[in-house]
Each structure stands twice: as C-alpha cells, then as structure tokens.
Write a structure and sequence with these properties.
By secondary structure, the protein is mostly helical. The protein has a domain at 38-107. It is built from 4 helices and no strands. It is rod-shaped, with a radius of gyration of 30 Å.
Length: 132
C-alpha cells in the first residue's frame, strides 16, 4: 500500500464521519424546532413579572404599615391601595396567561416516545470499527 493511501483512507473515513454527524439532524423525521432564544426571552419575561408582583405586594404592605403608624391620610391610603391592587390584578392575569401559554407550548413540543431504533449512528459506528 502506498503512503498516499495510508493518509487518504483515514482522511476520507474521518471526513465521512464528520459529514454524517453534521447532517444527522437533517435526516431525522421529527426534528426539534430551533428556538433562537425565544425560551430565554420568555424565561426573562416570567422573571420580570414575578419581580414586579413582589414589588407591588411589598408596596401594599408598606402602605398598610404607614396607615397603621398614622403617617398617611386614609384617603391617600385608599387611592394608592386601589392603584396598587389594580396593578397587582393585571400582573396576576398576565402571569396566569403567560404560564398557560408556556404549558401549552411545552405539551405540544414534547416528543412522542417511539420504540424505533435509530440505525444511522449504529451503522456509522460499525463502519468506523470495521474500517479501523
């Protein structure tokens, strides 16, 4: 065997393995969708809503404390409390709708369990072993 064949055959085998491993996602029948950062955006939005909810709840607690200490007029307390309660209700509605959307999407994208054996990696591994 020539020295050229000694280098060409392993190069072709390695190149084939790399090409198969890179194109394997395109061969699957049900590829998982690429999110392009949408999951990160949704997680950040959920976190922002939760932080804002905690802030509004803390504001309501502070209002009650100031009223009980006599540092706030009852009419001001009622006005500010109504504003914060409206904000809290809208936040809770947004959180509920957001979590419903996330649950619907996760239930739609869960792959069905299949008992089909994926033969491509098995055949590629067998070829590598046979050619080595």
């Amino acid at each position: 065997m020539s020295t050229l064949a000694i280098f060409v055959i392993p190069f072709v085998v390695i190149l084939g393995i790399v090409l198969v491993s890179l194109t394997l996602p395109f061969w699957r029948r049900d590829p998982s969708p690429v999110s392009f950062g949408l999951d990160d955006d949704r997680a950040q939005e959920l976190l922002d809503l939760q932080i804002e909810r905690e802030t509004v709840v803390r504001s309501l607690q502070d209002l009650e404390l100031e009223l009980s200490q006599g540092r706030m007029d009852p009419s001001d307390y009622e006005r500010l409390k109504a504003t914060d309660e409206r904000r809290l209700l809208s936040l809770l509605d947004r959180l509920d709708s957001f979590q419903d959307i996330v649950q619907d999407e996760t239930s739609e994208h869960q792959p069905a369990t299949s008992k089909r054996i994926n033969w491509v990696p098995t055949i590629a591994s067998a070829l590598v072993v046979l050619l080595a």
